[in-house]
């Protein structure tokens, strides 16, 4: 069932900011910046975000963090990391955004904290009152410390390492489904849930309009037995457990429902059935969620090992989710994914611009709340890094080690990882053709793509034909046409490189046709019999049977 909602978070478009790569501000004494984006930098860009047409900002973590996983390891949920600014800066950001009618949601990372969080430090002491905030298990004693025989069970982390690390001080292992500096909280302990509620209130009371909830479907561990053999042994004991659903309902009932806010959950390994249990409106858990399947239609294993891209497969996956969920979180990029124009478009080729615009059409004609990732609106491409020396991301480096263990040759490892590394999305935003792309006056924390002199915000801002102008147009069109927001999604099918769907509301039907190919292609039976062109990434005013390379066109017709 697709319900028509008209809630503010369904009407608006979200813009995701990955703060460290967004905009660095000069040092307080006017000297060079520290090369890391910050909150004052974000404030200086609010007018640009407004001009794009976004009405919500999702801010990736800005909390105090030792940075083992770029801020997704939080050492204090109530303070801002000094690199990003102060709590006063955060309050100013909220106020300045509000002046422009922009709401802000924050990242809520509650599956784990940093090992440097006070709770974890106290938890290492068996009698410190915090022991059961985390998951501690004794060694099995069959082998040396850290060896398989000594670990409490056979679980693996999402970062492809053992999920247990031994703590000398307390003589036991702790569980971490991610990095060893990200110990998992123990959600069987009601005190932990109360702590989370207090954190939610803290930010909601400051004017935050909701949360993007990190890995929100693995909170509750129902058993600590050995898991079935497979890529992630143990996942059957922590993926979407009933205890997890209960926690989400409790947070909603006791806190979130008392504010005008929304949540978008980031979920791992969900299918439509599991997703519905997390975000169907009647369940009162999440308002919408992110899944990964549509970004992996050309991936054999996880995001890393590639296979051929088939547009028809993409449409199939998109249709399944579009029709399966009441409301979707629609996204093509985030800080964990490669750049979409380098993925499903022609990032490094002659059709960079056409394909970036085609992808804008794809995203903004889907049903759901669109999330645009910083730089996507100017068609930023994958990092042009030359070797592992330039890689910062812990996940990429771990996968490299893993693939090496499986004797995958270095050349192939680099080929795969360079296309899929999370760092592709994390290079600084290319604001201008000035040194360091106008991102910083210091030394940027991660390399800047050499193509910044060609692809940058300043040059696109004044150009009516730019990718940026096209995004603005698409966002405006969505704002003005309920059919794009709430219309029913009907797939029309695929024909080679061309895919098509319709959005239907009342007597209006909008048909979307996309050609995912550097060659012209015939739309054939996918062409509607009538309709006027409302969107085109070429200068087309009437439809013909042949679509140009990476052409995107939207036709509007009135049904009788
Ligand atoms: O990512 C969750 C997650 O499941 C990742 O493993 C993700 O699937 C992977 O990076 C894609 O390759 C979230 C955050 O978005 C990510 O940045 C964090 O590293 C992770 O949680 C741990 O907090």
Provide a descriptive summary of the structure in words.
The strands form 6 sheets. An 8-stranded parallel sheet has the order 11-10-9-5-2-1-15-14. It has a 5-stranded antiparallel sheet with strand order 16-17-18-22-20. It is 27% helix and 17% strand. Helix 11 (352-364) runs parallel beside helix 15 and helix 12 (394-405) packs antiparallel against helix 13 (410-420). It is of the alpha/beta class and 560 residues long. The model has no long low-confidence stretch (mean pLDDT 96). It has 4 domains: 11-113 and 190-386 and 422-474, TIM Barrel; 114-184, Oligo-1,6-glucosidase, domain 2, CATH 3.90.400; 387-420, no CATH class; 488-558, Immunoglobulin-like (Sandwich), CATH 2.60.40. The structure holds 1-O-alpha-D-glucopyranosyl-D-fructose. 1-O-alpha-D-glucopyranosyl-D-fructose binds at residues 69, 72, 109, 158, 178, 214-215, 266, 268, 303, 335-336, 395, 422. The site of 1-O-alpha-D-glucopyranosyl-D-fructose (TEU) has 14 residues, from loops.
């Amino acid at each position: 069932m697709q319900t028509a909602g008209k809630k503010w978070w369904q009407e608006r478009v979200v813009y995701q900011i990955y703060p460290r790569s967004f905009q660095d501000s000069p040092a307080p004494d006017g000297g060079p910046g520290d090369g890391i984006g910050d909150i004052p930098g974000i404030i200086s860009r609010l007018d640009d975000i407004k001009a794009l047409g976004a009405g919500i900002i999702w801010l990736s973590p800005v909390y105090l963090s030792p940075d083992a996983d770029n801020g997704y390891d939080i050492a204090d949920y109530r303070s801002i990391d000094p690199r990003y600014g102060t709590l006063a800066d955060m309050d100013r950001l909220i106020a300045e955004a509000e002046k422009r009618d922009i709401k802000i949601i924050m990242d809520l990372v509650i599956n784990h904290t940093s090992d440097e969080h006070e709770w974890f430090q106290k938890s290492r002491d068996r009698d410190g009152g915090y022991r059961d905030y985390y998951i501690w298990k004794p060694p099995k004693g069959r082998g040396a410390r850290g060896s398989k025989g000594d670990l409490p069970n056979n679980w693996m982390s999402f970062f492809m390492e053992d999920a247990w690390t031994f703590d000398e001080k307390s003589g036991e292992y702790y569980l971490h489904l991610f990095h060893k500096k990200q110990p998992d909280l123990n959600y069987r302990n009601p005190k932990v849930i109360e702590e989370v509620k207090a954190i939610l209130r803290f930010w909601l009371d400051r004017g935050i309009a909701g949360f993007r909830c990190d890995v929100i479907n693995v909170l509750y561990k129902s058993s600590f037995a050995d898991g079935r053999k497979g890529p992630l042994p143990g996942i059957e004991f922590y993926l979407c457990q009933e205890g997890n659903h209960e926690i989400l309902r409790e947070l909603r009932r006791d806190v979130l429902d008392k504010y005008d806010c929304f949540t978008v959950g980031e979920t791992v390994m969900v299918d439509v059935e599991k997703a519905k249990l997390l975000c169907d409106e009647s369940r009162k858990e999440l308002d919408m969620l992110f899944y990964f399947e549509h970004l992996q239609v050309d991936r054999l294993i996880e995001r890393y090992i590639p296979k051929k891209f088939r547009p028809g497969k993409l449409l199939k996956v998109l249709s399944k989710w579009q029709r399966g969920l009441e409301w979707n979180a629609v996204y093509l990029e985030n800080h964990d994914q490669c750049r979409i124009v380098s993925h499903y478009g022609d990032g490094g080729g002659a059709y960079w611009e056409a394909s970036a615009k085609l992808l804008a059409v794809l995203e903004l004609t889907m049903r759901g709340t669109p999330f645009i990732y910083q730089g996507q609106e100017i068609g930023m491409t994958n990092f042009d890094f030359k070797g592992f020396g330039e890689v910062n991301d812990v996940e990429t480096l771990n996968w490299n080690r893993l693939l090496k263990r499986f004797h995958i040759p270095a050349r192939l490892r680099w080929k795969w990882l360079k296309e899929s590394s999370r760092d592709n999305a994390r290079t600084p935003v290319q604001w201008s053709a000035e040194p360091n792309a106008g991102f910083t006056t210091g030394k940027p924390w991660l390399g800047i793509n050499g193509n910044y002199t060609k692809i940058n915000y300043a040059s696109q801002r004044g150009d009516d034909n730019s990718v940026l102008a096209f995004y603005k147009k698409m966002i405006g069109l969505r704002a003005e046409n309920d059919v794009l927001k709430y219309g029913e999604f009907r797939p029309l099918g695929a024909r080679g490189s061309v895919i098509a769907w319709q959005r239907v509301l009342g007597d209006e039907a909008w048909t979307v046709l996309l050609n995912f190919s550097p060659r012209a292609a015939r739309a054939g039976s996918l062409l509607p019999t009538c309709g006027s062109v409302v969107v085109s990434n070429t200068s087309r005013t009437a439809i013909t049977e042949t679509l140009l390379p990476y052409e995107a066109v939207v036709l509007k017709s009135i049904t009788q």
